[in-house]
Amino acid sequence: MSHSLLIISRQAPGSGLGAREALDIALAGGAFDLPLGMLFLDDGVFQLLDRQRPAHLEQKRLAANLQALPLFGVEQLYACAASLASRGLADETLALPVETLDDAGLRALLARFDQVMTL
Amino acid sequence: MSTTLHVIAHSPFGDERLSSCLRLLGADDSLLLCGEAVQALRSGTAPQAQLRDARLQGRLFALSEDLEARDLADTLAERVDYPGFVDLTLRHDKVNTWL
Known about the structure:
The structure holds two protein chains of two kinds.
Chain A: E1 5-9, H1 18-31, E2 36-40, H2 62-66, E3 76-80, H3 81-86, E4 99-101, H4 103-112, E5 115-118
Parallel strand pairs in A: 1-2, 1-5, 2-3, 3-4
Chain B: E1 4-8, H1 17-24, E2 30-33, H2 46-53, E3 60-63, H3 64-69, E4 78-80, H4 82-91, E5 94-97
């Protein structure tokens, strides 16, 4: 039985490579059937905005790749409720079907996984 | 249920790692501050108040040489050396480094 891994992604899509690297790890792990979860925390929740036009920054659209997660078997997707609320995204339509978690939910999530990595 | 040792190395000033870590920190989890993160223990600062309010007695650690290098005389965190750091990683099921 493989160890389960929680990936915590806490960088905005436009601020360097962190967001894309976290996603690449998730997709690679998913392709190998690892039991994976992904949590969007802090500025990481900005990745979930559906209507971004990063071509203006000469970047590719991350949301399209994010939507591949369920296809790769990564279906345990979570977002921090406080991070969404403090960024004005509480009622926003998100690019992914994430479960939003309060602080108690976050602590339970972390305890449930065998390994965790934060990018 | 598995326990986590959280490791932070970034200064808490103008950075969300410490606040978010405290949000995620379970009742049996611990926090180790190293590098610039030990600045969170500077007395009279908001991060220090945040750590005090979190009541982490016995679960808050700081790397001794990083405290000394920054002239921090702290009493809130338990001081550990590098072997102590290794011991902490062994006493928890997993380690989460806030990169």
